[in-house]
Input
Amino acid sequence: MSLSRALQVGRWKCHLLEGGRQHLDGGAMFGVVPKPLWEKKNQPDERNRIPLGLRCMLVEHDAGPVLIDTGVGNKESEKFKGIYGVENTGTHGPTQLEDALLEAGFKPGDIRYVINTHLHFDHAGGNTFVEPDAAIRPSAHPTIRLSFPNATYVVQEGELDYATHTNERTAASYFLPNWEPVRLAGRLKLVRGEVELIPGITLLPTPGHVPHHQSVLVRDGVEVACFLADVMPTTAHVPLPWIMGYDVEPLVTLESKRRLESRAHAEEWRLVFEHEPDPAQAVGRLQQDGKSFIYQRLDTP
Ligand SMILES: [Zn+2]
Output
């Protein structure tokens, strides 16, 4: 299987990087949507889990390569990986993300910026890594290193605060080793609200999944691609009420989706779906269908 596919946005060459898979509870992925409806789109396994992609995006920018999200990483236990059905073992590096990066022609040390849409473990877990043999060494505290040692990591200030002040509901998704070593190394850049990070790359708040969730717009002239992240994790989440049970503010997600979809349709954005299980459906546009929008597949080379 090819781990990297190109997406040209004006003068910016982007690469969709397949960072592996995870398997999450189908009911949790579709919130209040009844199973007879969602199981037609995503067939669950015997444990009611559906397969999900861990897709990241690399933008070849004049300022240096920009990586959006980093997958699950390699720091979690076998038990954890079993629960979430994580399949992301790498051949040439800590995870499959590094393999995909290599296939696109890049090494981890090349990355200039890492943008985290938010700090959940399946989006920021690959920010840092442990040496693969750390678990069998006697040290109880294996050294955690930055996966992209020359990068500035970018996250919303509100999200960092939210991730470090968890409650009983949110704690299961936020693990300090995914960002604290970055912060301690002075490599964390905090932003507030909508910001053009570098020319053509804009961080767009799309709250609801978490209060400071952001999507990423890549623009050159009228050509725009939007890396959605968890505001619409798969193509099945395009209908407005198809909102994850994981979202902490589902009605805020609803309004984020409403705004984003009408703009994406009007400006003919290409949408990149991070968790879409079928790589062939990772990119699409929205098509009007009565009062709502539906997904229209776009092929990538
Ligand atoms: Zn996610």
Remarks:
- Helices lie at 26-30, 35-38, 78-83, 96-103, 121-124, 157-164, 180-184, 250-266.
